[in-house]
């Protein structure tokens, strides 16, 4: 990807995290964070990264919890204890976007679209399965 596109995508994800961290999030921003986490997962599976699956699951669960809380109380807030995991995965994704060839990023996006069209609850395996 060209550097301007990498910076633009990175900034969008980091702003989404900052907004959700401060309780000013919304469904779109939570979805953007989930998208970043899933694309980072797919790129890691393609050889770009080595973060533990638990970190991905922590962020996924934090977003799911925020969505459930927002549905009940209209409060859009990510759990503070998940912030280190989010920050680490967004840093990973920044580096992935900077070094992965465009065709790998396009493939990760294709995998995301395929997942979203399906019925699975997550593309990230549960940690107790040993699939990482």
Over all CA atoms, what is the radius of gyration? Answer: 14 Å
End-to-end separation in angstroms reads: 27 Å
Morphology call: globular
Number of domains: 1
**What is the average per-residue confidence, as pLDDT, rounded to a whole number?**
92
Helical percent range?
55-70%
Note the run of SSEs as H and E.
Answer: HHHHH
Largest sheet: none
Number of helices: 5
Low-confidence stretches: none
The proportion of strand residues reads under 5%
Structural class: mainly alpha
Number of E strands: 0
Protein name: Fis family transcriptional regulator
Map the helices and strands:
Layout lengths: L2 H19 L5 H19 L7 H21 L9 H17 L2 H16 L15
Helix pairs in contact: 1-2, 1-4, 2-3, 2-4, 2-5, 3-4
Structure description:
The protein has 5 helices and no strands. Helix 1 (3-21) runs antiparallel to helix 4 (83-99) and helix 2 crosses helix 4 (83-99). The chain is 70% helix and 0% strand. The chain has helices at 3-21, 27-45, 53-73, 83-99, 102-117. The protein is globular and about 40 Å long. With 132 residues, the chain is an all-alpha fold. The protein has one domain (3-118). It comes from Paraburkholderia piptadeniae. This is Fis family transcriptional regulator.
């Amino acid at each position: 990807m060209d550097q301007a596109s990498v910076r633009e995508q990175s900034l969008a994800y980091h702003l989404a995290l900052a907004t959700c961290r401060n309780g000013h999030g919304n469904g779109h921003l939570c979805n953007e964070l989930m998208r970043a986490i899933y694309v980072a997962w797919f790129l890691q599976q393609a050889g770009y990264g080595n973060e533990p699956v638990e970190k991905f699951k922590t962020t996924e669960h934090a977003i799911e919890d925020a969505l459930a809380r927002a549905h009940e109380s209209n409060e859009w807030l990510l759990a503070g204890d998940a912030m280190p995991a989010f920050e680490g995965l967004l840093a990973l994704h920044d580096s992935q976007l900077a070094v992965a060839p465009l065709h790998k990023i396009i493939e990760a996006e294709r995998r995301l679209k395929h997942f979203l069209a399906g019925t699975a609850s997550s593309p990230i395996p549960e940690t107790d399965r040993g699939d990482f």
